[in-house]
Amino acid sequence: MEQVDKNSIPKINQLISEWPNGAVMTMAQLKHKKYSRQLIDKYKSSRWISPIGHGAYRKYNDKVDWFGGIYGLQASGYPVFIGGKTSLELLGLAHYMGPEINRCCLFGETGTRLPKWFLEYPWKIDILYKTTNLFSRSIRLGLTDYKHKEFTVQISAPERGSIEMMYHIPNNQGFDEAFRIMENLATLRSDMVQQLLLNCNSFKVKRLFMYMAQKVHHGWFDQLNPEQIDFGKGKRVILKNGILDNQYQITVNPENTY
Known about the structure:
Blueprint: H1 9-18, E1 25-26, H2 27-32, H3 37-45, E2 49-53, E3 56-59, H4 66-75, E4 80-82, H5 84-90, E5 103-108, H6 116-120, E6 126-131, E7 143-148, E8 151-156, H7 158-167, H8 175-182, H9 190-198, H10 203-216, E9 243-245, E10 250-252
Parallel strand pairs: 5-6
Antiparallel strand pairs: 1-3, 2-3, 4-5, 7-8, 9-10
Helix pairs in contact: 5-7, 7-10
């Protein structure tokens, strides 16, 4: 290994000690920590760190996974987070669907483009990325920290994740599977659900959520106040071959399948 300038040793020691194992750091993060591009190039040539793409790095010989990539995005200020079915899987609320997570549902604020290094790195998982104004702009309600290895990433809490799951129906989320997951969500916080529905901008999502919540009828459902929620007007075709639910005016699977 090449020798690092003596004046750089304390700084590289500090960087490595603050760098969680398995995490990606970006040039933006490193600049914020007062590491110049020249110094980063020195650390790279001295095999302290290695690039995983343009503007993103890992500790030399460290293994990074998709959690580490999302950590790098969030720490760099990208307004993205893990949500939908994936957040429910991580929280153990959809574990019976399978032992392994094979897709990451990643949400971002409208207009947020993921950097090239994240898009091109082989994360060994399907990344389903959607930018949406599903909730009122910049609303952070219903997010929570999830610990992975030595760092945390922001994911949707069960209340938000279950509502986001409806957003993916029918193109990226099966109706029946979502219903079965909803059956497992007996401990949602009614006040959090209410606030999220009040801030939700999608009539389709709100109607789907309320339809399933009413069918499974957990205790928290009775604490909701649907009269405060705007469900819009007119019919919404969710399933092309479904039947119309008269209360929520959406096409769904026949009731006798549940």
